[in-house]
Amino acid sequence: MSTTGSNLDQAVQVLELRRDGDTYAWEKARRTWAAAEQDARKNLFSSVGIGAHGVTFTIRKSRPLTLHNAFRWRGRFCFLTSIVDGDPGFQVVKAALCDPLDCIKDADRAPQGCRFPGVLTEKYVGHEQLDPHAEVTGDLVLVTPKAVALVPGSWVIAEDRYFLVRVPHELDPFKNEYEIRRREDC
User: Fold this and answer.
1) Do 78 and 105 belong to one domain?
2) Using CB atoms within 10 A of its CB, is residue 73 exposed (0-12), middle (13-18) or buried (19+)?
3) d(C-alpha 68, C-alpha 2), whole Å
4) How many domains does the structure of the chain reveal?
5) 28-50 as b/e: b if 16+ CB within 10 A
6) Residue 135 is part of which domain span?
7) CA-wise closest residue to 146 among 78, 68, 71, 83
8) Of residues 49 and 91, which shows the higher confidence score?
9) Distance between CA atoms of 57 and 50, rounded to whole angstroms?
10) 121-143 per-residue burial string, b: 16 or more CB within 10 A, e: under 16
11) Are 74 and 149 in contact (CB under 8 A)?
12) Which of 80, 91, 112, 166 is most buried as measured by Cβ atoms within 10 A of its Cβ?
């Protein structure tokens, strides 16, 4: 996406993860103007989960921006996945359109556990017929800001449901991904 200053007609909030006690939240750090174009292809913001619809922004290169930030555009949360130099003085930012959830970690040990924003994406859904009932296993991926660390074997509440943290993927310098599981009787 090539642009000039006259194309920057979309207001975008630049978000930062902030901590207040045991609560992490995305909060507005500043506003910037961008050219925005929704992508036809999915943005793979998770290395082990299914991608989300993407959007490409072009912004002026003025203040520092990293993949630790996020955007809010047209009321939607945008998980940043790539920042590269564009035309002189501009940056091209790719993002996944996501719906962050209010999550609670270590909910099995402390009902008032740490609260944090997380993004769920689907990994695999299985169905097993057991006599005399059936069970559905939902394997999902929970993507969290890097500041949030979960322990395998612990529990997380997301969407008012309990999930078991199974497999951590923590090598990415900007985010963590956790394979989580929920089993339900049919």
Assistant:
1) no
2) middle
3) 25
4) 2
5) ebeebbbbbeeeeeebebbeebe
6) 101-185
7) 68
8) 91
9) 22
10) bebeeeeeeeeeeeeeebbbbbb
11) no
12) 80
